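Researcher: Structure for this, please.
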Amino acid sequence: MKEKNANLKKVLKREKTSYLMLLPNIILFAVFTIYPLCWVLRYMCFDYKGYGEAVFTGLDNFVRVFTRDKEFWNSVVNTIVYVAGKLFLTLPIAFLLAVLLSKQTKANTVAQSIVFTPTIMSSAVMALIFYLLFNTYNGDINRFLMSLGIIHTNVNWLGVKLAMGTVVIIAVWGGIGNYMVYFIAGLTGVPQDVYESAKIDGAGSVQILFRITLPMMTPIIKMVLMLALVVSFMDMQSIMVLTEGGPMGRTNVMFLYLYQLFFPITVGSSVPQEFGYGAAVSLVSACIVGLFTGLYLFLGRKLDKVME
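Model: Predicted structure, token format:
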């Protein structure tokens, strides 16, 4: 026992600098992640509005989530539609751009910078810019389409029918650059000898893409897809600025609905402030994201076994 303690002290002394460098991150993680999580777990079984006394209600908040809150489940459906649309468009475009711009040339470097620029913009600023562009009466999008003769009357891009599609397009524009960088990093790891051998054997560009590049990029694609899946489920900033979840709840995604339970966006918000119920919704939302992530990992493993 004494020897173990002595060895532990030696390890701590030797790695003291490393632990000191990790200490700020550990403190921030504890304050901004662990403490809020414990706070949520504390109030999920209470009726608490953020003021006054918290009244214990048992499992009533969870019963309400699963049986009485249609608005939450509508937001779950909206989230699935949003995530599917964003991933279906973002990842193929990002991968195609990565293939086209992966060669180290000055022109490609400039193009990569341009495509990546939206990623470093504030989501709120980006959403405000697109709100002005997609404005029904004096937006530049309607003006441009009318000048080309494509439309003859103003289109309500943020109306009931088109709001979700517009939100998805904006999300795609903002996310392509980030995933393009991941794919370019993966493409640099593919040995050039493989490409040269394929060209000598007479393989064309399409054959090289589908029979060499894609198979060798599978681990990177799986990692990027899982990252994109989780991030897309938690998207809400641009939607909050653009539509506030409207019109008629058509763009009210799961985490925006959860955010409104803690911080109502406007004074007359349709979602009242309810900390206790919000805590229960946050747990259910986390389980839903975990369920989809677990399902993706399960299907990924099954697919790997089939391809072996």
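Researcher: Any notable elements?
Model: The mean pLDDT is 85. Residues 77-253 form a domain with the MetI-like fold fold (CATH 1.10.3720.10).
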